[in-house]
């Protein structure tokens, strides 16, 4: 049995999905967390549950909403599970009425009854069920209350809707519906009435579908005649608006019937909002929060933890491996492979796990609390001036964790031009895999003000993105239309458990990658550094790796790092940015107490180190990001463009920083 | 000596396996990395045309 | 006019038809249309967006679109 989960954005569909399937999918407190279809198996194995992006109506405006409409048209589903936000019943019922017109077995999960009660809204679920003709089960998706009941109802009851044609659209529309049904009846498995109404509403996906099975000219005439008629008789603005108003009438009578309102106190949200979206303090508060996040990650908490982990790995762990290797009498080759290759390469990346988890914790906190949408609001003025809108800031913030989900999050942006622009610029956001490089270099060269230097890099990424947005939007991606309407969800206190889960969910990818790809990469990098044209165990400067690095090293001389070591690590960085750090650990491997940080001072000046960090920040996105850009834009041209412009801008900026810095007498 | 060969073979085998897997996964982008890919029939199949 | 409302003011939407089609659709999705009562929550500086509340939900829209919405103060 296939059950589709559908509802308005930010009504808790994914929370419910996680509860019903026992899986863990990405949840957050803003509209548009889920941008693609996800399938899970019910806990008690009664069927598949399909999580869809949130929509207000089946007539889509943005790409994530299109996912839902094309799902309805192209795939078969046995049951619809409609989630309603009890505190926003009127708005939610618009979608419900459209779903019921689809004439599939349906049931309703009435979510957020706790929030509604707090606002003084009380809804009679059994009455609602009676009016709509489908079962209604009250649930609290966040805590899982009521989910068992929901599963029982799905599994046992026959839930064919008992009422048909809940909304009567008036004589004229109904006549036109009948006429359109006559054209398509028997040619489709979908409800003909549903298709007819959606056609009249101007749903492009449905129009395309219907035109493919019937005479498009005839349909067009029916629709046009109806529109003219309605204009003459009722002075209606448009056909879509007429249908909307008819639905609204029905909804108002339903709500008056089932909901009871009482007085309530001012929600906490409004008090917090008056501070964080304050006209003067909004931006400074955001920057202060970011600064606090970086201090905690790099100074107060993250670095001491990383240092402790580093001491553990280079000390007891290495000694332990050495002992075992000696005991089993391992050959020199194996000894070098494990100590110089694996422990250095994998260990060098694992050391940064504490810092990455702290960063992810903050990103999860932003997502879960409801602050994300406020940031978009606060940022909109700046974004508008560069040809984007505030919503584009959300993918960019997500990009701080990992660019891949960041680019996916751009699906919620309504206009295709702004979406493309956001996809192209999100890779400039410094993802968590780039963080170890900064941590290493600031530790070696800028110990005094670590957090500040790293913050400067993150801000540089944002500033470059904004400048490029301005350039692109006034040259290659010119267009007038821009849309910014954003729903600001109420704040909620994040639960520690869900916060920890989403932190772990994001962070475990980093740990897993260290054990798989970084492990593999370390082996090959080490092998390339161990072998050379003259045989095995050569001096590293005569290894294959040195030969490869030397081949491209001259390109980087003007920007401050012409060593083969730097070039070699940049090449591996294309596969995954963490690989830069494991490559460096292997190349600069020092068996004694001397740390990599100390050794780096021999190869870089502070100025060259900063130039290197800027280059790492901006140069070609990693392989997985490039693949996602290709998937999302479906264009080889734009994918290639995203790689080329990033490399060019990285080179130019590093050049300005390095040569400019030297002019001012910096080293 | 036998231990060395065994360890070496294990490490290189594991490394090659994951290297190939990683490159394949990255090239496919998000879908392959998704844990639900086996039961997911959509394959990110969204019509490109949305205004 | 929306432009004349300050934070804390309440109003009723009379005419929304001058706003761009996409914005109109999105506001309609959120249940904000002619006849809706709205309350201005805050106004961002430098001509930034404004935050309005309607039926217990908050929505951010741009100033330039907001001034095209005709409201009557209540």
Automatic annotation (TrEMBL), chain A:
GO terms for cellular component: plasma membrane. It comes from the Bacteria. The keyword Ion transport applies. InterPro entries: Fe2_transport_prot-B, Fe2_transport_prot_B_C, FeoB_Cyto, FeoB_GTPase, G_FEOB_dom, Gate_dom, P-loop_NTPase. Mg(2+) 1 binds at residue 22. GTP binds at residues 7-14, 32-36, 51-54, 111-114. Residues 1-160 form the FeoB-type G domain. One of its GO terms (molecular function) is metal ion binding. Coiled coil: none annotated. The keyword Metal-binding applies. Keywords: Cell membrane, GTP-binding, Ion transport, Iron, Iron transport, Magnesium, Membrane, Metal-binding, Nucleotide-binding, Transmembrane, Transmembrane helix, Transport. This is Ferrous iron transport protein B. Mg(2+) 2 binds at residues 18, 21.
TrEMBL record, chain B:
Pfam families: FeoB_associated. This is FeoB-associated Cys-rich membrane protein. Keywords: Membrane, Transmembrane, Transmembrane helix. It comes from the Bacteria. The keyword Transmembrane helix applies. The chain crosses the membrane at residues 6-23.
UniProtKB/TrEMBL annotation, chain C:
InterPro entries: Fe-transptr_FeoA-like, FeoA, FeoA_core_dom, Transcriptional_repressor_C. Keywords: Iron. Residues 1-73 form the Ferrous iron transporter FeoA-like domain. SMART domains: FeoA (SM00899). It comes from the Bacteria. PANTHER family: FE(2+) TRANSPORT PROTEIN A. One of its GO terms (molecular function) is transition metal ion binding. The lineage of its organism: Bacteria, Bacillati, Bacillota, Bacilli, Bacillales. It comes from Neobacillus cucumis. This is Ferrous iron transport protein A.
């Amino acid at each position: 049995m296939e059950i589709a989960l559908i509802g308005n954005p930010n009504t808790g569909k994914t929370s419910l999905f996680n509860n019903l399937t026992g899986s863990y999918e990405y949840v957050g407190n803003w509209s548009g967390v889920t941008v693609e279809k996800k399938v899970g198996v019910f806990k008690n194995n009664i069927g598949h549950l399909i999580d869809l992006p949130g929509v207000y109506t089946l007539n889509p405006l943005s790409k994530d909403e299109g996912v839902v409409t094309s799902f309805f048209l192209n795939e078969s589903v046995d049951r619809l599970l409609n989630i309603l936000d009890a505190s926003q019943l009127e708005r939610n019922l618009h979608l419900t009425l459209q779903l019921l017109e689809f004439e599939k077995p349906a049931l309703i999960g009435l979510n957020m009854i706790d929030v509604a009660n707090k606002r003084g809204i009380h809804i009679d679920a059994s009455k609602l069920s009676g009016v709509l003709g489908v079962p209604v089960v009250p649930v609290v998706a966040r805590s899982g209350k009521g989910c068992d009941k929901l599963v029982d109802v799905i599994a046992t009851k026959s839930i064919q809707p008992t009422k048909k044609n809940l909304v009567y659209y008036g004589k004229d529309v109904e006549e036109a519906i009948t006429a359109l049904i006559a054209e398509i009846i028997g040619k489709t498995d979908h409800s003909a009435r549903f298709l007819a109404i959606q056609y009249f509403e101007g749903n492009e996906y449905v129009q395309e579908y219907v035109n493919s099975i019937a005479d498009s000219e005839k349909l067009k005439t029916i629709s046009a005649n109806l529109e003219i008629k309605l204009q003459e008789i009722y002075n209606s603005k448009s056909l879509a608006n007429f249908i909307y108003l008819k639905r609204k009438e029905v909804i108002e009578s339903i709500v008056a019937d089932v909901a009871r309102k009482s007085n309530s106190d001012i929600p906490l949200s409004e008090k917090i909002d008056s501070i964080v979206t304050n006209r003067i303090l909004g931006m400074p508060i955001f920057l202060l929060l970011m600064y606090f996040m970086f201090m905690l990650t790099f100074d107060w908490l993250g670095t001491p933890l990383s240092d402790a982990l580093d001491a553990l790995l280079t000390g007891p762990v290495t000694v332990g491996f050495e002992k075992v290797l000696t005991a089993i009498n391992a050959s020199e080759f194996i000894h070098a492979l494990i100590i110089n290759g694996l422990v250095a390469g994998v260990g060098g990346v694992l050391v940064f796990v504490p810092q990455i988890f702290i960063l992810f914790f903050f990103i999860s906190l932003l997502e879960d609390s409801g602050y994300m949408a406020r940031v978009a609001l606060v940022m909109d003025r700046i974004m508008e001036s560069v040809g984007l809108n505030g919503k584009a800031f959300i993918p960019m913030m997500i990009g701080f964790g990992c660019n891949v989900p960041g680019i996916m999050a751009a699906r919620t942006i309504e206009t295709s031009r702004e979406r493309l622009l956001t996809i192209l610029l999100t890779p400039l956001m410094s993802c968590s895999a780039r963080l170890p490089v900064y941590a290493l270099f600031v530790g070696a060269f800028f110990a005094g003000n670590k957090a500040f230097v790293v913050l400067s890099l993150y801000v540089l990424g944002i500033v470059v993105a904004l400048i490029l947005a301005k350039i692109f939007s006034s040259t290659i991606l010119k267009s007038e239309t821009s849309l910014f309407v954003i729903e600001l969800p109420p704040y909620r206190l994040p639960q520690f458990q869900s916060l920890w889960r989403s932190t772990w969910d994001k962070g475990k990818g980093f740990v897993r990658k260290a054990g798989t790809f970084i492990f593999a990469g370390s082996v090959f990098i080490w092998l390339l550094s161990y072998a050379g044209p003259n045989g095995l165990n050569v001096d590293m400067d005569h290894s294959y790796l040195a030969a490869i690095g030397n081949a491209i090293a001259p390109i980087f001389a003007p920007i401050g790092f012409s060593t083969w070591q730097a070039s070699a690590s940049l090449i591996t960085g294309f596969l995954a940015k963490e690989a830069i750090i494991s490559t460096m650990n292997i190349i600069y491997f020092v068996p004694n107490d001397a740390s990599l940080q100390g050794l780096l001072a021999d190869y870089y000046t502070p100025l060259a180190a900063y130039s290197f960090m800027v280059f790492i920040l901006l140069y070609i996105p990693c392989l997985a990001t490039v693949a996602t850009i290709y998937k999302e834009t479906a264009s080889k041209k734009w994918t290639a463009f995203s790689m080329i412009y990033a490399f060019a801008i990285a080179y130019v900026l590093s050049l300005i920083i390095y040569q400019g810095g030297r002019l001012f007498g910096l080293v | 000596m036998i231990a060395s060969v065994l360890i070496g073979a294990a490490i290189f085998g594991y490394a090659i396996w994951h290297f190939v897997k990683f490159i394949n996964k990255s090239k496919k982008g998000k879908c392959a990395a998704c844990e639900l890919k086996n039961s997911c029939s959509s394959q990110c199949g969204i019509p490109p045309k949305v205004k | 006019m929306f432009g004349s409302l300050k934070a804390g003011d309440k109003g009723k939407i009379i005419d929304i038809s001058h706003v761009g089609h996409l914005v109109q659709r999105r506001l309609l999705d959120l249940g904000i249309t002619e006849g809706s009562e709205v309350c201005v929550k805050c106004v961002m500086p430098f001509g930034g967006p404004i935050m309005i509340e309607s039926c217990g939900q908050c929505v951010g829209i741009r100033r330039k679109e907001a001034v095209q919405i005709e409201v009557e103060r209540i």
